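Protocol step 4 of 6.
Sequence for Photosynthetic complex assembly protein (Flavimaricola marinus) entered exactly as in the expression construct, tag removed. Do not edit the line below.
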Amino acid sequence: MPTFNQGIPMKHAAEEMVPRPLVYAMFALMLGAVGLVGYAQLSGMPKVGVLAEAPIVQERSVVLLGDRNGAYVVTDTTGTVIAASSDEKSGFIGVVGMVIKRERHTLGLAPDAPVRIARRGNGNISIIDDSSGLTVELIGYGADNVAAFGNLLN
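Step 5 output, structure tokens:
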């Protein structure tokens, strides 16, 4: 069994947790970041990381219907089922369905209003909920997740 040297007390243990120069460097970094953001806001620099909204070139109105377990089906406006979150590589449909349902619930809106799935001129796919004003640009969600909604336009 290993033994530990318990006879030597730690000298100034509280002072040595984080070296003082490191604390000064952290505050300097924080103040520098706040200063840069403040300068960018006050000088009117353009927001370069903001997505430019391209025009819609193709769209389809669908209804996302879900149950309490998060299983969603996508129907067209006539009620024909065109996809389900239980289909292979379509689980993201259920995720987006729950987001839209939550947004509508928060605003006190009907949960079964149609949403628009749109393909933009730059190739991006968007989900537009006109009833709540929510727009989800499907960027950075992975190819399979974007394809789950992109396939609904074909």
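Step 6, annotate. The beta strands are 56-66, 72-76, 81-84, 115-120, 125-129, 134-137.
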